[in-house]
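Deliverable D2.4 — example input (structure tokens):
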């Protein structure tokens, strides 16, 4: 199994000027599936200051986000968790990062609905969290395609529309995903 994954990037979207290349390391207890989830999240939420697995350098925040955008004051503006994440952790993130948008990526609508149901049961504050659910067949296919070296081309997509069009390792994807708010 590879310890790092290189993605060579191109984009047709002027609003999403992706860098030429990014490298994602495989962390402890992570699989290729987790790398694929982080990569898809990074592309969906892309902005100039978006970082992957970056310590926020704040003793009051004991977590390392999968994806984070830090403001110029070094406080999180966007915090994205990919895959498994406890509701206790999500609650702490929202409390300790009050300015941040908090998002969770899930590989299926069933997983997203289970998380949302738990959040409602635990009386989480409303309008604070976003959850994205991928199509499980799409996500499995992406995971099977990820190699040590990858070629990725972004055509279009947005959170608002719940759509993505891209090519990964010469295979075309035109998919939709569900966006939930809690």
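Example output (designed residues):
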């Amino acid at each position: 199994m590879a310890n790092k994954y290189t993605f060579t990037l191109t984009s047709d979207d002027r609003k999403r000027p992706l860098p030429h290349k990014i490298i994602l390391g495989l962390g402890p207890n992570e699989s290729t599936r987790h790398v694929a989830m982080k990569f898809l999240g990074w592309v969906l939420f892309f902005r100039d200051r978006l970082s992957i697995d970056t310590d926020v350098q704040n003793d009051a925040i004991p977590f390392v986000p999968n994806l984070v955008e830090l403001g110029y004051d070094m406080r999180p503006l966007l915090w994205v968790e990919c895959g498994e994440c406890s509701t206790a952790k999500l609650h702490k993130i929202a409390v300790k990062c009050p300015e941040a948008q908090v998002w969770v990526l899930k590989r299926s609508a069933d997983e997203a609905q289970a998380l949302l149901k738990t959040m409602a049961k635990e009386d989480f504050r409303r309008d604070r969290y976003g959850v994205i659910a991928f199509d499980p067949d799409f996500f499995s296919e992406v995971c099977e395609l990820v190699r040590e070296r990858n070629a990725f081309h972004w055509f279009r997509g947005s959170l608002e529309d719940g759509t993505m069009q891209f090519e990964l390792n010469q295979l075309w994807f035109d998919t939709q995903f569900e966006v939930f708010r809690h």
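The longest strand covers residues 149-158.
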